[in-house]
Amino acid sequence: MALRQLLFLVSLFGPLYAMCPSQCTCYLDDKGRNAVSCIDGGIVGPLDLFNMSLDTEVLKITAPEDDMNQLTMSPVFHKYKKLEEIRITRSNIPQLGKHFFWGLNKLDVLDLSQNNITQPLDHNFVGLFKLKDLYLDDNRIYSLPSGTFRYLQELKLLSIQRNRISELMPRIFLEIGKLKVLKLSGNNLKELNPVVFEDVKELKTLECRSCGLTRIDKHMYELLSHLTSLDLGDNFLTAISSDEFSPLLNLRQLKLDGNAVSAIKSSTFSNQQELKRLNLARNRITKISRHAFANLHNLTELDLSHNKFEDPENGLLEPVAGTLEVLFLNGNHLSVRTLKRLLNNVEIRELRLAECGLVEVGEAVFPGTLEVLDLANNYISEMTSEVLPESLKELDISGNRFLGLGNDVMAKLDSVRGLRMERNPWACDLCHIVPLLERANRSAGIRGLQCAQPYSLKGG
């Protein structure tokens, strides 16, 4: 019986393992597909697939950073009709040949990221009738002519991030009207011409971080009304008009972090009733209208960290009090009084208040629903047990001015599974250190605390 099973396995897997290119590993991936993986690097010259099984469905070629491949490409794939996924990265490929992928009718994924490709042309992709995902990130692409991807009519995802593209030519997306995800981040585009998007009106996700954008033509949003995720972070946007996003009725995630916006007006998000995540971090926001979030009835996560607002208007978070779960306020100079007013009736699970200049935390400030509280890098020296909600599971008080914590606080923290307390001036005399030592003996999460005083125990 055992012998028959062994013979069956040999007959099943034998051909796969017998035909495997040198420097590569052949195996079945987690989807049960015949896969070839070449990850050691150091491959120089034309791509050689000698001894690779014709049944191969997945091919992955990459290299470590200190020993990248130096591949030149030739049309070697035409006989591998079963290939569904090709990933050739970190291989310094300079260009793609004409009809290079001809005959790969089953190919779904093509990843040529981290190479030296400078200008893909339409004939490079002839024959890839069923390709769904194309990755060309981290190459040296400086230009994409009109219709570059016109043979990829089933394409759903196109990622050309961190290249050298300075302009998107009209009709660049000709014939790929089924595209759902477009990633352009890291190209110095400076502007997005709405005409470019006339061929991809079904887009669901658009990412254009770090593209040097100073403004957005609203007509682009009118063309892309099906967007559910929009990322315009780390650009140079200085203002958002009151009806900026009005055509985007289906938006669920919006990232505007890392810009230079100074104010959020009352009707800016009036049509974004489906929005769940809003990131406004690292701007220059000093004022947010009380009604800025009035129609965000499904908002669960709001990031306002590292801005310049100190005195938000009363009732700012009231419209989202019933749905908001995560709130980031890091890096804003906020008082306890302001926090108490801002968090009134808000039932959040996670609150981030690192680097807010807090010198104290009073009772009845934090919601009773809170599970995660970040108070790192403030100036807090005292805390009572009444400050901490019963629901708390994670607490970060690192980088403050605590000398010690009382027995009542430590008792309450017994149920907190994630606790960070380093970089405080802990006083290691008997009355201060006993509760800490007792807890440290039971939990690895707070080991490594060092004494700051008295002098004889400093660093201990």
Secondary structure blueprint with pairings:
Blueprint: H1 2-18, E1 25-28, E2 34-38, E3 44-46, E4 58-61, E5 70-72, E6 85-88, E7 109-111, E8 133-135, E9 157-159, E10 181-183, E11 205-207, H2 218-223, E12 229-231, E13 253-255, E14 263-264, E15 277-279, E16 287-288, E17 301-303, E18 326-328, H3 336-342, E19 350-352, E20 372-374, E21 394-396, H4 407-412, E22 418-420, E23 426-427, H5 430-440, E24 451-453
Parallel strand pairs: 2-4, 3-5, 4-6, 6-7, 7-8, 8-9, 9-10, 10-11, 11-12, 12-13, 13-15, 14-16, 15-17, 17-18, 18-19, 19-20, 20-21, 21-22, 23-24
Antiparallel strand pairs: 1-2
Descriptive overview:
Residues 1-18 form the signal peptide. This is Insulin-like growth factor-binding protein complex acid labile subunit. The protein is of the alpha/beta class and 460 residues long. It has five helices and 24 strands. It has helices at residues 2-18, 218-223, 336-342, 407-412, 430-440; strands at residues 25-28, 34-38, 44-46, 58-61, 70-72, 85-88, 109-111, 133-135, 157-159, 181-183, 205-207, 229-231, 253-255, 263-264, 277-279, 287-288, 301-303, 326-328, 350-352, 372-374, 394-396, 418-420, 426-427, 451-453. The strands form four sheets. It has an 18-stranded mixed beta sheet, with no helix packed on it. The longest helix is centred in the N-terminal third of the chain and has 17 residues, at 2-18. It is globular.
